[in-house]
Protein backbone atom coordinates (compact mmCIF):
# COMPACT_ATOMS: atom_id res chain seq x y z
CA UNK A 1 0.00 0.00 0.00
CA UNK A 2 1.22 3.48 -0.78
CA UNK A 3 0.87 5.86 2.16
CA UNK A 4 1.93 9.49 2.40
CA UNK A 5 2.43 11.56 5.54
CA UNK A 6 0.76 14.88 6.51
CA UNK A 7 1.43 17.93 4.36
CA UNK A 8 4.74 19.68 5.04
CA UNK A 9 6.04 23.07 3.89
CA UNK A 10 9.45 23.82 2.40
CA UNK A 11 11.15 27.14 1.71
CA UNK A 12 13.22 27.59 -1.46
CA UNK A 13 16.88 28.14 -0.43
CA UNK A 14 17.26 31.00 -2.94
CA UNK A 15 14.07 33.10 -2.69
CA UNK A 16 12.26 31.59 0.32
CA UNK A 17 9.07 30.95 -1.67
CA UNK A 18 7.14 28.17 0.09
CA UNK A 19 5.88 24.97 -1.55
CA UNK A 20 4.18 21.98 0.02
CA UNK A 21 4.40 18.22 -0.32
CA UNK A 22 3.53 14.96 1.40
CA UNK A 23 6.46 12.72 2.36
CA UNK A 24 6.19 9.09 1.29
CA UNK A 25 5.73 6.77 4.28
CA UNK A 26 5.41 3.37 2.68
CA UNK A 27 5.21 2.01 -0.79
CA UNK A 28 4.18 -1.30 -2.31
CA UNK A 29 4.54 -2.02 -5.98
CA UNK A 30 1.73 -4.06 -7.51
CA UNK A 31 3.03 -3.63 -11.00
CA UNK A 32 3.72 -6.77 -12.97
CA UNK A 33 5.80 -5.02 -15.61
CA UNK A 34 9.06 -3.28 -14.91
CA UNK A 35 11.31 -1.60 -17.45
CA UNK A 36 14.83 -2.92 -18.00
CA UNK A 37 16.22 0.28 -16.42
CA UNK A 38 14.53 -0.83 -13.18
CA UNK A 39 11.70 1.70 -13.40
CA UNK A 40 8.20 0.58 -12.57
CA UNK A 41 5.59 2.49 -14.57
CA UNK A 42 2.82 2.22 -11.99
CA UNK A 43 3.75 4.94 -9.56
CA UNK A 44 6.18 4.68 -6.70
CA UNK A 45 9.12 6.52 -5.19
CA UNK A 46 9.90 9.40 -7.51
CA UNK A 47 6.28 9.83 -8.58
CA UNK A 48 4.43 10.07 -5.29
CA UNK A 49 5.72 11.56 -2.05
CA UNK A 50 8.28 14.34 -1.95
CA UNK A 51 10.04 14.92 -5.26
CA UNK A 52 13.79 14.22 -5.10
CA UNK A 53 14.41 17.49 -6.93
CA UNK A 54 11.97 20.30 -7.63
CA UNK A 55 11.90 23.62 -9.45
CA UNK A 56 10.91 26.66 -7.34
CA UNK A 57 7.69 28.31 -8.49
CA UNK A 58 9.12 31.70 -7.39
CA UNK A 59 12.63 31.96 -8.84
CA UNK A 60 12.77 28.86 -11.09
CA UNK A 61 15.92 27.54 -9.37
CA UNK A 62 16.13 23.78 -8.70
CA UNK A 63 16.54 22.49 -5.15
CA UNK A 64 16.30 19.30 -3.07
CA UNK A 65 13.18 19.45 -0.82
CA UNK A 66 14.69 16.93 1.61
CA UNK A 67 17.49 19.44 2.26
CA UNK A 68 15.34 22.59 2.22
CA UNK A 69 14.27 24.42 5.37
CA UNK A 70 10.93 23.20 6.77
CA UNK A 71 8.57 26.04 7.68
CA UNK A 72 5.17 26.29 9.33
CA UNK A 73 1.96 26.08 7.34
CA UNK A 74 1.47 28.71 4.63
CA UNK A 75 -2.06 29.03 3.28
CA UNK A 76 -2.38 28.50 -0.47
CA UNK A 77 1.25 27.38 -0.93
CA UNK A 78 1.51 25.59 -4.28
CA UNK A 79 2.47 21.91 -4.42
CA UNK A 80 6.11 21.05 -5.12
CA UNK A 81 6.22 19.71 -8.66
CA UNK A 82 7.67 16.34 -9.69
CA UNK A 83 10.28 17.29 -12.25
CA UNK A 84 11.62 15.78 -15.44
CA UNK A 85 15.10 14.74 -16.54
CA UNK A 86 16.19 18.38 -17.01
CA UNK A 87 15.71 19.35 -13.34
CA UNK A 88 17.73 16.37 -12.15
CA UNK A 89 20.54 17.15 -14.61
CA UNK A 90 20.57 20.74 -13.37
CA UNK A 91 20.72 19.64 -9.72
CA UNK A 92 23.70 17.42 -10.56
CA UNK A 93 25.42 20.22 -12.48
CA UNK A 94 24.97 22.60 -9.52
CA UNK A 95 26.48 19.96 -7.20
CA UNK A 96 23.42 19.83 -4.93
CA UNK A 97 24.28 16.33 -3.70
CA UNK A 98 26.22 15.73 -0.51
CA UNK A 99 27.82 12.35 -1.09
CA UNK A 100 28.37 9.58 -3.59
CA UNK A 101 25.15 7.74 -2.67
CA UNK A 102 23.01 10.86 -3.18
CA UNK A 103 24.77 11.64 -6.45
CA UNK A 104 23.97 8.11 -7.61
CA UNK A 105 20.26 8.55 -6.81
CA UNK A 106 20.10 11.83 -8.77
CA UNK A 107 21.92 10.37 -11.78
CA UNK A 108 19.75 7.25 -11.74
CA UNK A 109 16.55 9.35 -11.57
CA UNK A 110 17.72 11.60 -14.43
CA UNK A 111 18.45 8.58 -16.59
CA UNK A 112 15.13 6.87 -15.88
CA UNK A 113 13.14 10.05 -16.48
CA UNK A 114 15.05 10.57 -19.74
CA UNK A 115 13.98 7.09 -20.79
CA UNK A 116 10.37 8.23 -20.70
CA UNK A 117 8.15 9.78 -18.07
CA UNK A 118 5.46 7.62 -16.47
CA UNK A 119 2.65 7.11 -18.92
CA UNK A 120 4.49 8.88 -21.73
CA UNK A 121 5.79 7.33 -24.94
CA UNK A 122 8.78 5.15 -24.27
CA UNK A 123 12.05 6.65 -25.43
CA UNK A 124 14.13 4.49 -27.72
CA UNK A 125 17.78 4.60 -28.56
CA UNK A 126 20.77 6.43 -27.14
CA UNK A 127 20.61 9.52 -24.89
CA UNK A 128 19.39 12.52 -26.83
CA UNK A 129 21.45 15.41 -25.45
CA UNK A 130 25.17 15.68 -24.51
CA UNK A 131 24.31 16.25 -20.81
CA UNK A 132 22.24 13.07 -20.72
CA UNK A 133 25.06 11.12 -22.38
CA UNK A 134 27.59 12.48 -19.90
CA UNK A 135 25.22 11.59 -17.05
CA UNK A 136 25.02 8.03 -18.33
CA UNK A 137 28.81 7.75 -18.48
CA UNK A 138 29.19 9.03 -14.91
CA UNK A 139 26.41 6.73 -13.75
CA UNK A 140 28.32 3.79 -15.24
CA UNK A 141 31.39 4.74 -13.17
CA UNK A 142 29.37 5.18 -9.97
CA UNK A 143 27.62 1.81 -10.07
CA UNK A 144 29.52 -0.73 -7.99
CA UNK A 145 30.41 -4.14 -9.49
CA UNK A 146 30.49 -5.62 -5.99
CA UNK A 147 26.76 -5.09 -5.46
CA UNK A 148 24.33 -7.34 -7.34
CA UNK A 149 21.59 -4.70 -7.63
CA UNK A 150 24.12 -2.21 -9.01
CA UNK A 151 25.73 -4.72 -11.32
CA UNK A 152 22.58 -5.39 -13.36
CA UNK A 153 21.95 -1.63 -13.72
CA UNK A 154 25.57 -1.14 -14.76
CA UNK A 155 25.10 -3.75 -17.50
CA UNK A 156 21.94 -1.97 -18.65
CA UNK A 157 23.72 1.42 -18.69
CA UNK A 158 26.54 -0.13 -20.77
CA UNK A 159 23.94 -1.35 -23.26
CA UNK A 160 22.35 2.11 -23.51
CA UNK A 161 25.83 3.49 -24.21
CA UNK A 162 26.23 0.95 -27.02
CA UNK A 163 28.94 -1.05 -25.18
CA UNK A 164 27.33 -4.40 -25.88
CA UNK A 165 30.37 -6.55 -25.07
CA UNK A 166 30.85 -4.83 -21.70
CA UNK A 167 27.16 -5.39 -21.02
CA UNK A 168 27.45 -9.13 -21.72
CA UNK A 169 30.60 -9.46 -19.58
CA UNK A 170 28.94 -7.70 -16.63
CA UNK A 171 25.87 -9.93 -16.90
CA UNK A 172 28.14 -12.98 -16.69
CA UNK A 173 29.28 -11.86 -13.22
CA UNK A 174 25.74 -11.52 -11.96
CA UNK A 175 24.92 -13.98 -9.18
CA UNK A 176 22.36 -16.69 -9.78
CA UNK A 177 19.04 -15.70 -8.37
CA UNK A 178 15.61 -14.41 -9.00
CA UNK A 179 16.89 -11.62 -11.24
CA UNK A 180 16.90 -14.16 -14.07
CA UNK A 181 14.08 -12.73 -16.24
CA UNK A 182 15.67 -9.29 -15.94
CA UNK A 183 19.14 -10.61 -16.81
CA UNK A 184 17.96 -12.60 -19.82
CA UNK A 185 15.91 -9.71 -21.22
CA UNK A 186 18.93 -7.39 -21.14
CA UNK A 187 21.21 -10.12 -22.54
CA UNK A 188 18.82 -10.70 -25.43
CA UNK A 189 18.66 -6.97 -26.26
CA UNK A 190 22.47 -6.72 -26.08
CA UNK A 191 22.85 -9.69 -28.44
CA UNK A 192 20.70 -7.95 -31.03
CA UNK A 193 22.69 -4.73 -30.41
CA UNK A 194 19.53 -2.84 -29.42
CA UNK A 195 19.78 0.30 -27.30
CA UNK A 196 16.03 0.60 -26.69
CA UNK A 197 14.25 -0.23 -23.44
CA UNK A 198 12.67 -3.57 -22.76
CA UNK A 199 10.10 -4.67 -20.21
CA UNK A 200 10.34 -7.50 -17.72
CA UNK A 201 7.37 -9.27 -16.24
CA UNK A 202 7.84 -9.78 -12.53
CA UNK A 203 6.92 -13.00 -10.85
CA UNK A 204 4.85 -12.26 -7.77
CA UNK A 205 5.35 -15.56 -6.10
CA UNK A 206 8.21 -15.50 -3.62
CA UNK A 207 8.33 -19.31 -3.59
CA UNK A 208 10.81 -21.37 -5.56
CA UNK A 209 9.75 -24.96 -6.26
CA UNK A 210 12.69 -27.35 -6.27
CA UNK A 211 13.50 -30.94 -7.24
CA UNK A 212 16.68 -32.48 -5.82
CA UNK A 213 19.25 -33.40 -8.50
CA UNK A 214 20.37 -36.49 -6.55
CA UNK A 215 17.15 -38.13 -5.34
CA UNK A 216 14.38 -36.12 -7.00
CA UNK A 217 12.73 -35.20 -3.69
CA UNK A 218 10.51 -32.15 -4.00
CA UNK A 219 10.77 -29.10 -1.78
CA UNK A 220 10.05 -25.43 -1.68
CA UNK A 221 12.01 -22.43 -0.54
CA UNK A 222 10.97 -18.93 0.18
CA UNK A 223 13.09 -16.22 -1.37
CA UNK A 224 14.14 -13.63 1.22
CA UNK A 225 11.66 -10.78 0.93
CA UNK A 226 8.97 -10.23 -1.66
CA UNK A 227 9.67 -8.32 -4.80
CA UNK A 228 9.37 -10.93 -7.47
CA UNK A 229 11.65 -11.37 -10.40
CA UNK A 230 13.80 -8.30 -10.00
CA UNK A 231 15.45 -9.17 -6.75
CA UNK A 232 18.94 -10.56 -6.90
CA UNK A 233 18.38 -13.20 -4.24
CA UNK A 234 20.78 -15.98 -3.41
CA UNK A 235 19.99 -19.15 -1.57
CA UNK A 236 21.62 -22.50 -0.88
CA UNK A 237 19.40 -25.31 0.38
CA UNK A 238 19.75 -28.81 1.73
CA UNK A 239 17.61 -31.73 0.47
CA UNK A 240 15.37 -33.15 3.24
CA UNK A 241 15.80 -36.69 1.97
CA UNK A 242 19.44 -37.13 0.98
CA UNK A 243 21.09 -34.00 2.46
CA UNK A 244 22.43 -32.95 -0.94
CA UNK A 245 23.41 -29.26 -0.83
CA UNK A 246 22.88 -27.06 -3.89
CA UNK A 247 21.93 -23.59 -5.08
CA UNK A 248 18.14 -23.27 -5.02
CA UNK A 249 18.01 -21.69 -8.48
CA UNK A 250 19.82 -24.70 -9.97
CA UNK A 251 17.08 -27.03 -8.67
CA UNK A 252 14.21 -24.85 -9.80
CA UNK A 253 11.17 -26.56 -11.32
CA UNK A 254 9.53 -24.26 -13.85
CA UNK A 255 6.02 -25.64 -13.68
CA UNK A 256 5.42 -27.02 -10.20
CA UNK A 257 1.63 -27.41 -10.62
CA UNK A 258 1.20 -28.19 -6.94
CA UNK A 259 -2.58 -27.99 -7.25
CA UNK A 260 -2.85 -30.06 -10.40
CA UNK A 261 -0.73 -32.81 -8.87
CA UNK A 262 -3.28 -33.28 -6.13
CA UNK A 263 -6.47 -32.57 -8.10
CA UNK A 264 -8.39 -35.68 -6.91
CA UNK A 265 -8.10 -34.35 -3.36
CA UNK A 266 -9.23 -30.88 -4.33
CA UNK A 267 -12.19 -32.33 -6.23
CA UNK A 268 -13.16 -34.46 -3.26
CA UNK A 269 -13.04 -31.42 -0.96
CA UNK A 270 -15.24 -29.47 -3.33
CA UNK A 271 -17.79 -32.25 -3.55
CA UNK A 272 -17.91 -32.71 0.22
CA UNK A 273 -18.25 -28.96 0.62
CA UNK A 274 -21.13 -28.79 -1.84
CA UNK A 275 -22.98 -31.61 -0.16
CA UNK A 276 -22.68 -29.74 3.14
CA UNK A 277 -23.74 -26.49 1.45
CA UNK A 278 -26.82 -28.05 -0.10
CA UNK A 279 -27.77 -29.66 3.18
CA UNK A 280 -27.48 -26.29 4.97
CA UNK A 281 -29.12 -24.39 2.10
CA UNK A 282 -32.23 -26.52 2.16
CA UNK A 283 -33.10 -25.18 5.60
CA UNK A 284 -33.02 -21.44 5.06
CA UNK A 285 -33.43 -18.46 2.80
CA UNK A 286 -31.19 -18.11 -0.29
CA UNK A 287 -29.19 -15.36 1.49
CA UNK A 288 -28.59 -17.59 4.46
CA UNK A 289 -27.52 -20.27 2.04
CA UNK A 290 -24.86 -17.94 0.59
CA UNK A 291 -23.64 -16.69 3.95
CA UNK A 292 -23.56 -20.06 5.65
CA UNK A 293 -22.14 -22.23 2.95
CA UNK A 294 -20.36 -20.65 0.04
CA UNK A 295 -18.01 -18.24 1.78
CA UNK A 296 -16.78 -20.67 4.47
CA UNK A 297 -16.43 -23.25 1.73
CA UNK A 298 -14.18 -20.98 -0.31
CA UNK A 299 -12.06 -20.20 2.73
CA UNK A 300 -11.81 -23.85 3.70
CA UNK A 301 -10.85 -24.76 0.16
CA UNK A 302 -8.09 -22.13 0.10
CA UNK A 303 -6.64 -23.53 3.34
CA UNK A 304 -6.96 -27.04 1.99
CA UNK A 305 -4.98 -26.14 -1.10
CA UNK A 306 -2.24 -24.59 1.04
CA UNK A 307 -2.14 -27.72 3.16
CA UNK A 308 -1.86 -29.90 0.05
CA UNK A 309 0.92 -27.70 -1.27
CA UNK A 310 2.87 -27.97 1.96
CA UNK A 311 2.52 -31.73 1.86
CA UNK A 312 3.66 -31.98 -1.74
CA UNK A 313 6.37 -29.31 -1.46
CA UNK A 314 7.69 -29.12 2.11
CA UNK A 315 10.10 -26.31 2.95
CA UNK A 316 13.70 -27.14 2.12
CA UNK A 317 16.26 -27.12 4.93
CA UNK A 318 19.05 -24.59 5.15
CA UNK A 319 22.58 -26.00 5.25
CA UNK A 320 24.60 -26.08 8.48
CA UNK A 321 28.10 -24.73 9.10
CA UNK A 322 29.96 -27.84 7.90
CA UNK A 323 27.94 -28.00 4.69
CA UNK A 324 28.52 -24.32 3.98
CA UNK A 325 32.24 -24.73 4.64
CA UNK A 326 32.15 -27.64 2.15
CA UNK A 327 30.70 -25.18 -0.40
CA UNK A 328 33.60 -22.84 0.39
CA UNK A 329 36.16 -25.63 -0.03
CA UNK A 330 34.85 -26.67 -3.43
CA UNK A 331 34.49 -23.00 -4.44
CA UNK A 332 30.85 -23.45 -5.31
CA UNK A 333 30.30 -19.97 -6.71
CA UNK A 334 30.24 -18.02 -9.92
CA UNK A 335 31.85 -14.60 -9.69
CA UNK A 336 32.93 -12.48 -6.72
CA UNK A 337 29.45 -11.56 -5.41
CA UNK A 338 28.49 -15.19 -4.98
CA UNK A 339 31.83 -15.98 -3.32
CA UNK A 340 31.31 -13.19 -0.80
CA UNK A 341 27.78 -14.39 -0.09
CA UNK A 342 28.77 -18.06 0.49
CA UNK A 343 31.70 -17.06 2.70
CA UNK A 344 29.49 -14.69 4.70
CA UNK A 345 26.83 -17.37 5.29
CA UNK A 346 29.51 -19.88 6.34
CA UNK A 347 31.05 -17.30 8.68
CA UNK A 348 27.69 -16.42 10.28
CA UNK A 349 26.96 -20.11 10.82
CA UNK A 350 30.43 -20.60 12.30
CA UNK A 351 29.64 -17.88 14.84
CA UNK A 352 26.30 -19.45 15.76
CA UNK A 353 26.80 -23.18 15.91
CA UNK A 354 28.44 -24.60 18.98
CA UNK A 355 31.64 -22.94 17.85
CA UNK A 356 30.87 -19.54 19.28
CA UNK A 357 34.33 -19.17 20.68
CA UNK A 358 36.63 -18.40 17.72
CA UNK A 359 39.48 -19.96 19.74
CA UNK A 360 37.90 -23.38 19.14
CA UNK A 361 37.26 -22.88 15.44
CA UNK A 362 38.44 -25.45 12.96
CA UNK A 363 41.23 -24.45 10.64
CA UNK A 364 38.93 -24.11 7.65
CA UNK A 365 36.44 -21.87 9.50
CA UNK A 366 39.38 -19.69 10.49
CA UNK A 367 40.67 -19.64 6.91
CA UNK A 368 37.21 -18.67 5.64
CA UNK A 369 37.09 -15.73 8.06
CA UNK A 370 40.54 -14.53 6.96
CA UNK A 371 39.63 -14.72 3.28
CA UNK A 372 36.23 -13.06 3.73
CA UNK A 373 37.37 -9.77 5.25
CA UNK A 374 39.34 -8.44 2.22
CA UNK A 375 36.37 -9.28 -0.05
CA UNK A 376 33.98 -6.94 1.75
CA UNK A 377 32.94 -3.69 0.10
CA UNK A 378 33.16 -0.26 1.69
CA UNK A 379 29.35 0.05 1.63
CA UNK A 380 27.44 0.07 4.93
CA UNK A 381 26.87 -3.70 5.14
CA UNK A 382 30.49 -4.43 4.18
CA UNK A 383 31.93 -2.07 6.80
CA UNK A 384 29.71 -3.47 9.56
CA UNK A 385 30.60 -7.07 8.70
CA UNK A 386 34.29 -6.27 8.46
CA UNK A 387 34.21 -4.63 11.89
CA UNK A 388 32.38 -7.65 13.34
CA UNK A 389 35.02 -9.99 11.92
CA UNK A 390 37.71 -7.87 13.58
CA UNK A 391 35.83 -7.97 16.90
CA UNK A 392 35.36 -11.75 16.76
CA UNK A 393 39.11 -12.03 16.18
CA UNK A 394 39.68 -9.84 19.31
CA UNK A 395 41.09 -6.97 17.24
CA UNK A 396 38.92 -4.45 19.07
CA UNK A 397 40.75 -1.25 18.09
CA UNK A 398 40.46 -2.18 14.42
CA UNK A 399 36.72 -2.87 14.89
CA UNK A 400 36.11 0.54 16.50
CA UNK A 401 38.11 2.29 13.79
CA UNK A 402 36.13 0.54 11.04
CA UNK A 403 32.79 1.36 12.67
CA UNK A 404 33.73 5.05 12.77
CA UNK A 405 33.86 4.94 8.95
CA UNK A 406 30.32 3.54 8.71
CA UNK A 407 28.12 6.02 6.81
CA UNK A 408 25.37 5.78 9.45
CA UNK A 409 27.69 5.52 12.46
CA UNK A 410 25.63 8.03 14.43
CA UNK A 411 22.21 6.45 14.38
CA UNK A 412 22.24 2.85 13.08
CA UNK A 413 21.42 0.70 16.17
CA UNK A 414 23.47 -2.22 14.82
CA UNK A 415 26.57 -0.02 14.62
CA UNK A 416 25.96 1.20 18.18
CA UNK A 417 25.65 -2.34 19.48
CA UNK A 418 28.74 -3.54 17.62
CA UNK A 419 30.71 -0.55 18.98
CA UNK A 420 29.60 -1.24 22.55
CA UNK A 421 30.62 -4.90 22.28
CA UNK A 422 34.03 -3.91 20.88
CA UNK A 423 34.56 -1.35 23.66
CA UNK A 424 33.71 -3.96 26.28
CA UNK A 425 36.26 -6.30 24.70
CA UNK A 426 33.57 -8.90 24.00
CA UNK A 427 34.70 -11.27 21.25
CA UNK A 428 32.25 -14.07 22.02
CA UNK A 429 28.81 -12.49 21.53
CA UNK A 430 27.10 -13.41 18.28
CA UNK A 431 27.63 -10.96 15.40
CA UNK A 432 25.17 -8.10 15.04
ZN1 LIG B 1 12.97 30.16 -5.25
ZN1 LIG C 1 17.89 -35.38 -2.41
Structure description:
- The structure is a single chain.
- β12 and β13 form a beta hairpin.
- Strands 3-2-8 form a 3-stranded antiparallel β-sheet, with no helix packed on it. The protein has a two-stranded antiparallel sheet with strand order 1-4.
- It is mainly α.
- The two termini are 30 Å apart.
- It is globular, with a radius of gyration of 27 Å.
- The model is unreliable at 225-232 (pLDDT under 50).
- Among the domains are: 3-201, no CATH class; 207-251, no CATH class; 258-312, no CATH class.
- α8 packs antiparallel against α9 (286-312) and α14 (396-404) runs antiparallel to α15 (413-423).
- The protein has 15 helices and 13 strands.
- The structure holds zinc ion (ZN) (2 copies).
- One zinc ion is lined by residues 12, 14-15, 17, 56, 58-59, 61.
What are its keywords?
single chain, 432 residues, three-stranded antiparallel β-sheet, two-stranded antiparallel ribbon
Amino acid sequence: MTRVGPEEFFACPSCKAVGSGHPLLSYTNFSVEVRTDGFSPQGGPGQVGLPGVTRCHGCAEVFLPARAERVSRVRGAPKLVHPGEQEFLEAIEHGLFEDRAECLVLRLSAWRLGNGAPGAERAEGPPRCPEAKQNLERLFDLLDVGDADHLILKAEVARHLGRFETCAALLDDLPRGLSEPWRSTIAELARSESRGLGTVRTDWSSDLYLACKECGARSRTRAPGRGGALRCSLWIVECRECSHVAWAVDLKVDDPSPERASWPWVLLAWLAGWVAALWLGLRGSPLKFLGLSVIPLLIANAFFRLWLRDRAWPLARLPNMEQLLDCVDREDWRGPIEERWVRTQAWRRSCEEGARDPGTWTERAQRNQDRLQPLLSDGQEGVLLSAEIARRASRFDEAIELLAEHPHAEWDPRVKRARNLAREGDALSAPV
